[in-house]
Batch of 2 targets.
Target 1
Amino acid sequence: MGLARYIALRVAWAVVVSFIIVTLTFVLLAAAPNPSVQEAATQAALQGGDPQEAAERERELRGLNEPIHVRYVDYVVSVYTLDWGWSEHRSQPVTDALWQGLYYTAQYSIPWTILTLLLGPLVGLYSAANMYSWKDHAATGFAFFGYAIPNFFFAIVLLLIFGVWINWVPTYYQTDAPVFSLDNAIQLALPVFVLVTGSIGAIMRVSRNESAEFMNADFMKTAKAKGVSTFRAYAYHVLRPTMVPLSTTVVGQLLAIFWGSSLLVEVVFGIPGLGRVTYDALIAQDTNLVLGATLFFTFIAVVGNLIEDLVFTIMDPRISYDDR
Amino acid sequence: MLGLIGAGATVGLAGCTGGDPSDDGGDDGGDDDGGFGDSDGGVDHDAEELPEVGGRFTNMHHATFTTLNPLYNTEAGAGSAIGYALDQGYTFDADQELFPLLYDLWTEDGGNVWVFEIRDGLEFSDPYGQVDAESFVYQIEELHQSDWANTASSSDWAGINVEQTGDLEFQAELEDAELLWPETYTPLEYPIPKDLVEPYVDEEDDDGLRQNEELIELQFTGNLGPYVLEEWERGAGTRYVRNDDYYLQEADGVPHLFSNAPYFEELRVDIVEEEATRVGALEAGEADTADIPPDRFAEFQENPDVDTYTIPQPYNNILSVNMRDNGWNAGPGNLFQIKEFRQALACAINKEEFIAGVYRGNAEPHFTWQPQFSNFYPGEDDIPMFGVGDLYGSEVARDLAQDAFDQSEYDYHFDGDDMVTPDGDQVVLDILYFPGSATGQLRAEYTAQELGDNLGIEVEPEAIGGDRFNNEYWTADPEGGEDPDAGLTWDEPSPWNPGPRSVTSNESWDMSVVFGLNTYPRNPQANDVFFDGATTMYNPVGYYPEFDAEGLFADARSAESQEEIQAIFEELFVNLAEEQPYIMLAFPDDLVGYTAGLRGPIENFSNGWDFPTWHY
């Protein structure tokens, strides 16, 4: 099977997976009580009206009295045409809310991801090359410190030192700073630093251990015997095979921290990103926005898995598509 | 429901909290500033020389706004954000006098018919023209009084007959006369252009009205607010620029200082959820104002770059005790239903230590359903001061508890230091608290300790989320029904009073310090929502008054003079102090920091009423 066919099949599978998830969300949604119906009934009760009548009227207005298959078709069409409804909690279309959140999240998560992917394996490789020396311990200690200290706490401490006491950075994020400006870089320095220190630990440890396996491999001995430079030996003969198993870990981990860790950092630094959009929607029981966020992250996960598989095959030519 | 739940509350129904510059605050009837706080300081409204216009004012807020659509907003924070760009009808000044903004209103028949007189020269943005009586009457009749729009004010205007009587004048005829009607805020309306909402009225399209961009983005506000909203960045806050045409600059009967107001070129409200960051921004000089948590207030009082203010407010700290059938899970019967037992609880908690320990002294003790600054607060000789002096301590609490045991059909008693059940086990109760508020856990733990020390009850604090508490514990499906023993019928049950004591929430609970409630010091009549008999709209705890509360509220509604109202409410509050429907603990002050040198803030319930005149 060729690469193109493999990709086509993987993409088709991704579509099927997303369809299954969309269907499941519909089932859950249909089974849950609709808050707007409850709200209408409460409002009617407060005004001395008939709550039952108000609830019926609201159901009719929202199309909830339609047969379930009609509602399902409407729902699926809406999802795939990006008509994700209105966010009651933010008074804007769901797609706008997610887009705005992504706009701010991307500003710190892109540098965070790049730095993590660059620094994690490099520090791991450095540790492996100097295994059990003080350099290894220092690098490991640094990685573990970042991993162990809670992002939330670390962020507040750094904010206090650099924002309030020394006044090098603003205490909270200003959305009016242009994206590509020194002001924006300065105000994002602390969030990115906190996130990078929090996420390179695991990657560094995995890459250290993986690298260690290849340090004394036959092909490394051959390379050294041929007079290959140290840099080239590490970069081509150690780092590359190390990245193969690591790529699986990295994509999964980054997807997880993309949402979880970013929420806490967004709360501390006042960044109106995707983490806060989603969390606030959950707290406010903003069904449309929660659903939109779920679909968005589903899409990210499906695409992430796809990319992961493709990267896997490209990085290691020994992996074939035949059994897939 | 706006403004019902307040201090200590964790979910979004909070009403005005005096610390926010544009919050309207205030009370009626005040004749001096002694009650409602200090009206000294602030700005000199009659200064000859006007301040220069310039700079930016940055306000911090802790939560995002759900909507800025004036017709649908029910949040205090969003109300402030709207208020920077769009005035409402009136406010109350530092002397608690009604201060007309868009309109004045008065009654000449003892509160039955109220006349609204709109200022001339109020203009919407193009193409909507002048604000007139027709736009207000249309808004009230076609939106608030409709059965489809469900606006935030819809329950306020039910049964009120509104009539246009001139281009700039209309009147409202109430079902029952109400002398303190302005103080209920019911007549407080935003101006909304008729032409803007008419298409939605014709279609009965509430979604369209709710989602209209001109309403949400406040694009119609013309000269009607001190600032013009430039941008609402969801999640980040709002940005405004000065409104050069603000109508109060030319208005008659307003202090001279308004003639060039406002005095900041720019204004912004920045949303930062983390308290440490907000306080840090104030400390670093990046914000001009922020709330300060009690444990850091003393530190800021020493900070020369920040001016600190303690501002009285009407939301209380209470210990709610569940008198319904799923309360009192220690054993048979429910001792919370017995007045003397609630008094015993009140006597077991030292209010002064509570305030010192939880609020570092920045609160007032709470004895009856009014703060002491209220003009309706009864004399202290008339009410029992549970929790201080002779009415605090183990001995007095145990005596009252013993009285309650004697009235119970079950054999509760003291065994040594412990209060025990008929089975001989120590009474164990839970107390729910919200861990996200700065003081929630402290309040619960102090209460638990006092009830253990003074009444021998083992109290177990339990943390709970605010929404979960509200949905599963505090409210229930309205069922209605009868309580034959009490001779009561629930014809109009609500989620907050779903029926007799046999109708309960999904989860059982004993005590809670999660929510505090409003005490409405400007207009105590509004407290009928809590205490107008056992069947009143808001009674989650299942309290049955043992005095004629309904009769007193009815008397107050038909009262013809301020003095009569005063006497009725004083009687009401004496009875409530006696019965402790909720165990009353404290009124915490709002603790607010402003950048040093800001002229305007006052330690008064009405702080912020004149925000357009604030300046450096």
Target 2
Amino acid sequence: MTATHTRTAVPTAPADRKTTYREAMREALREALRTDERVFLMGEDVGRYGGCFGVSLGLLEEFGPERIRDAPLSESAFVGAGIGAALAGMRPIVEIMTVNFSLLALDQILNNAATLLHMSGGQLPVPIVIRMTTGAGRQLAAQHSHSLEGWYAHIPGLRVLAPATLTDARYMLAPALADPDPVLIFEHGSLYNASGELPADAGPVGIDHAAVRRAGTDVSLITYGGSLPKALAAADDLAGGGISAEVVDLRTLRPLDDATIGDSVARTHRAVVVDEGWRSGSLAAEISARLTEQHFYDLDAPVERVCSAEVPMPYARRLEEAALPQVHGIVAAAHRTVGDPMPASGTDEAKRLPVHREGGLR
Amino acid sequence: MSTTRTPRAPRPATRPNRQAAHRLALLESMLRVRRFEERCVELYSAARIRGFMHLYIGEEAVAVGVNEALTADDAVVSTYREHGHALARGVPAEAIMAEMFGRVTGCSRGRGGSMHLFDAGRRFYGGNAIVGGGLPLAAGLALADRMTERNRVTCCFFGDGAFAEGEFHETANLAALWGLPLLLVCENNLYAMGTALARHQAQTDLALRAAGYGMVSWAVDGMDVFAVEDAARRAAEGVRAGTGPHFLEMRTYRFRAHSMYDSDRYRDKAEIEHWKERDPVEGLARRLREANELTDKARSALEDRLATEIDGAVAAAERAAEEPVEDLLKYVTSPVEASPP
């Protein structure tokens, strides 16, 4: 066929596309399974059921039961098997339903995955990715709601990720799989249904750096995962009161990106750390300590922390909400850092983020 | 311990071609473990070796006999009582001794010590000091072989103590369910640290219990290297043939305490002496002497050769450099190229 005329291409900006956190995760898994035959997904209900949070729905049909491998309820055995398979050249993605259940595999994660490289003098890297749900907000009570990622962030030898945005949900898995060492990915349960536009130009992301999600000049709200939407909502609220809040999304909980955190605080001179873990011995405690060590003279106010109440997570909605970091608490803490006592009417209940109750264990 | 219900490993249809040279090689391999560890005791007493150290003396027939059934392609996962497994696997005495001295020439660059010997090149995956902790790992190595259709065996050693851990039961279920090419070798030395089998297991017939997972399971006289070798060959053949995991309960005994710190107050001297009459090393030497396959002169030459080898290992360890402290944080994570923000 001969062209009879030439057409001038009209450049059109590629469109953003609507998706959810769950779908973004699934797309990342699908891409990983398609591009690397060493990759397989293993965990409880990941196959026939489609993943207890629906993340792996449809993958069994596409990739078959060898690569979408339903495991018995044996967290220690299948996590350990993932570690062994990684040692033998595979690239396993192991899904644990919730961080609470991961405690049954903590021996394998800590005593094997995190230590084999060092104990063997560099001979045995463990290229495994372990994904799990974390966090509260869905009235699942104390054994399905805790935020223990800070514990894992304590452990040398592990990399700990907390994707909070659609882009990170979609693009953090690939670099996690490329990492020669064990990577833990914490997915906050309240994020799965989060929907929005995945930017058309979204592409590979790193797993070394924190990100400034909103620029500001008066106070840094430092957070990650499921607390990011709350921190952004708090920043909106604060803007209404004339306070310019910068929001830093940690993204990688280990190793912590001291530079991005420090640069932000050097600009704003105030910090509020928002962390759904318990305050005692929390990741927020670590960040606060680092700011004191490294940025004491940049700080115009004591570092504030907004953490979960020191209580096993209660079921009752009112109590659960009270136990968790909420927008109004973040706003109040930010006000304190600027020496501006919070006006009594400043807490607008209507501005609290709705608590996600859908998308839980089915 | 007595039981009659457990199936015993059947005699192989064709006995391995056990030439005199092979029998002598088995003796040499067992004697190497014995003499190496006896030297370790001296070095430990002289504070040249520190930390926890668990000796294998009395159990040598298991490591040596099982290793006969494995090839260089197979994998071995071991416990904290692994000097014998490592030596039988071919890890040089020099590399092991240097490791115990904490030297950079050690098989784990001095970061593991007695309990964490590794040799990736020989597919020797430790060196696991959490009781039962190596079992899921071994299942994973086997799973990778299954998924990539490599016909290899993963052999996992563990003790009777591990039978009380969930790790054993989770792994046995997983391995049998998925038909993994796994050879489970339980070294039943009758004690979980200081607790006798009958005081830590509701049912002391371990092979019987393993059979409950649908695995081929045999009990084997772990003091007889020929019995061990026969059973291990049969089991490894079964694994290679794709019939799933096999379980061997090696009935054995450790002549020394659980660790160098253990005063061994929980066992009768008489019991120990009774088992020493079944010493696997001297038992084999006696059989070879009676068959005129081992003269006193040959024995003496063998002892000299091993002493020279171990002397050399100790001397090399003494001379070897220590890892510089500047390298302390090496091998916590792999070196990675910077990634985009």
